[in-house]
Amino acid sequence: MECSCVVDAPVEECEFGLDMAKSYPVALEPQKCCECGRQIEAMETYLHEKGIPEGEEDEVPEGEWDWHEYNTCLDCKSIRDQFFNGFIYTMILHDLYLFLDESDGSTNEECIAALTPRAREIVCSYVEDIWQKIEKEEQG
After folding, report:
1. Tens-of-pLDDT digits for all 140 residues of the chain?
2. How far apart are CA 53 and CA 130, in angstroms?
3. CA distance 77 to 71
4. Is 72 helix (H, G, I), strand (E, B) or coil?
5. What are phi and psi of 114, to 5 degrees?
6. What pTM, to 2 d.p., does this model score?
7. Going by C-beta distance under 8 Å and a sequence separation of 6 or more, which residues neighbour residue 74?
8. How far is CA 11 from CA 6, 37, 58, 87, in A?
9. How far apart, in whole angstroms, are the C-alpha atoms of residue 94 and residue 76?
10. How far apart are CA 18 and CA 132, in angstroms?
């Protein structure tokens, strides 16, 4: 089921698109999530994406390609899958917070229910923070 509240990140602000190859390896050593900064522990599955800017393979010799690599924990991947149509790497949580703030912390319960437990904690803490901010504003 698709979530009714979807963040449309301003991907057109990027200088280029990336043609990414995706894999789900098991970490042999700790990795860092590009979104939340959490350490992905050894033996934990994560999303690894690697690619080059679109069109670069036609314009630049292969040995000079500008590779981009991103490791994403499955919790941040869960948030990306539930809330985003388009996204900018490293900006998922920032853009999600802005989206929730603009909607006064309102979101579809089905979206939250479909998240991993840790992702659910992140989203619910954002909603709670926004509600507290609204409450303070209303009190004066």
Report:
1. 344 456 665 544 444 456 789 999 999 999 999 999 999 999 999 999 998 877 667 777 777 777 889 999 999 999 999 999 888 899 999 999 999 999 999 998 898 999 999 999 999 999 999 999 999 999 97
2. 36
3. 10
4. strand
5. -85, -5
6. 0.84
7. 45, 46, 47, 116
8. 14, 21, 23, 6
9. 12
10. 38
